[in-house]
Known about the structure:
elongated; single chain
Amino acid sequence: MSTFHSLDRSGRHGHTLRMKSYAKELWFETAKRYELIDITKQVEAALADSGIAEGLCLVNAMHITASVFINDDESGLHADFLEWLEKAAPHEPVAKYRHNVGEDNADAHIKRQIFGREVVVAVTKGAFHFGPWERIFYGEFDGRRRKRVLVKIIGE
């Protein structure tokens, strides 16, 4: 799903600026319980579709057991992330979590809280204003079902 809106506002010296707003939902269904997926290309495609050259892009997980974050696309680092998260909030034993009454995903809620809900990236000259090696990732901590990520871009 994509939506597009624009808003007029008066600029200096009588110029009219058009603030645009664009939204797109990305859907994911992972094969495993835990996965870290580079979604940079999908978010860059949304930016291109938006036509926005200067502004901000919000990317957020719309589920409370998933995350969006920015980091390096390096497999050893990702393995370290997942190992550290499992030590901080182990899945087993499921019964140790008060949340797990009829569920087994309390650890996923904690992992999401640690990694965060969203990222905001500056848009400059129609591209993301990233630092070296930065990529956008979807972190899944309770996978094997359909979940979505919102991409919301505002600017001119």
